[in-house]
Amino acid sequence: MPELPAPDYPAEVRTRLEEDAREVIARYPDSRSALLPLLHLVQSEEGHVTRTGMRFCAEMLGLTTAEVTAVATFYTMYRRKPSGDYQVGVCTNTLCAVMGGDAIFEELQSHLGVGNGETTEDGKVTLEHIECNAACDYAPVVMVNWEFFDNQTVESAKALVDELRAGRPVEPTRGAPLCTYKETARILAGFPDARPGAVEAGGSAGPASLVGLRLAKGEVTPGRVVSPRSADAPQDEAPPTHPSSHDAPQRTSASDPHHPAGPVAEEGE
């Protein structure tokens, strides 16, 4: 059977969202360019993108609901069903996986009693695996509402979700203080984060991310990058030649004279 038209928002909600939507649309020379932030806006209202939200976006931008649906279903950052206050994403891409991401994700599924993309019964945590958090130098990485929790272990990740479910504050390794998923969606829609000090806490790239830049600038003895998991390591050691074990040269066929990479015969033989 054909699906009935989506219901509209209650009048007071519609009025408030229209005011916000007009502010967003005014930023763009072509109104349809505002679709992505408007989807974040309606997601901030209900915690996911509903049929009502897509109808609202279509009406505000003069689009069809099919056009809006095509975009909303393409990007995984838009939720299509109710989800938790905290989106816990575990990177399971190559480097994070081999550094422990797969083990973290498997253990969290068991610990929380949910599968990928599912939400705990208390509505606090939605667990998902993420292909890449763009933070390979801090692997394995977990993100909560897009804030970084670096150098995780199975135990630290379990403690993290326990704190979230208990309503106790947790501090990201880098970036702004944590807020709920609805609050995050409103920020992504382009509205300022009004929490005191939140913008200043955003910070910049961490030391591990800047090692290559320092080397490119000619700094021959960059500071040692130490994982928080080994923060009790002696701090008075001389910096190693290579700032990270990931950068250390490995003996391969290209570097081992006894096992050359190419043919050993002279040219022409």
TrEMBL record:
- Region: Disordered; residue ranges are 220-269
- Does Iron count among this protein's keywords? yes
Q: Which UniProt keywords apply?
A: 2Fe-2S, Iron, Iron-sulfur, Metal-binding, Oxidoreductase
Q: Which domain of life is it from?
A: Bacteria
Q: Which residues form a coiled coil?
A: none
The catalytic activity of this protein is classed by the Enzyme Commission as 1.6.5.11
* Metal-binding found in the keyword field: yes
Needed cofactors = [2Fe-2S] cluster
Q: Which PROSITE patterns match?
A: COMPLEX1_24K
Question: Which Pfam families did the record assign?
Answer: 2Fe-2S_thioredx
Q: Which GO terms describe its molecular function?
A: oxidoreductase activity
Task: State the top-level EC class.
Answer: oxidoreductase
User: Which NCBIfam families does its entry note?
Assistant: nuoE_fam, PRK07539.1-1
Family statement drawn from the similarity comment of this UniProt entry: Belongs to the complex I 24 kDa subunit family.
This chain belongs to the protein called NADH-quinone oxidoreductase subunit NuoE
